[in-house]
Structure prediction request, 263 residues.
Amino acid sequence: FPKAHWLGLRRWVTHTLARTMDIAITTNPEDTAQLRPIRPDVVEIPIGSNIPDNPPAGFDRVAWRARWGAPEDAALICYFGFLNASKGGEMLVDVLGELVDRGQNAHLLMIGGRVGASDPTNYAYLQRVEARIADRGLTDRVHWTDHIPSQEVSAAFHISDVCLLPYRDGASYRRGSFMAALEHGMAIVTTPPQVLYPDLVDGETLLFAPADDARAMTDAVERALTDGELRRRLGENAKALSRQFGWDAIAAACLRAYEAAAR
Prediction:
């Protein structure tokens, strides 16, 4: 029911449950901030990635690039997830076009299925993005994997240089695409969260750029592409951060929360 939040139903149901349950667990700072006034004892336990860092056996970067038509020597930017207006898909095209205009041999790898089934407006938005790609003359520089198994998603991350996630409403631990990029130790360019995330440090964990600002996003992506040391550091720090979202750590945190609630 994708429109539930517009009608206020989602908030009503969530808050009713939070008030009446023995324990309330959130997965991200945004939801924690919303529930804290009615549940001061709310426990925050982040979700893990459902795409483990596990490319197919014998993974070869050049061969996998060739599989999806990405040149061996290209600066390959990736995006993961369905397209819809909240994810800033048009910015992907604008950033790619600006990089090419600046002389970068940039290509874009679109990882995963193109649209989800929960909202019929997603297909119309996909058509807008595809039209923008054609209008900018970038069709040969955009490569689509379409729906693929998780190991192939992992391979797609590993052949990419930078992951661009231009969310219009900010990065969040609610975003599975963001969690997967962290899991794979990607150099990530994304938009600032709507609330404070102490672990997300611009220039250390990732690079931030304002939503809907193609020039600023292009600057950030180009900075990561042209500075190998920065790209390496961002990737290492993203991977280190992802370890706290491992399923063993999540299970242990859940067990502690359940035991505390039972006392």
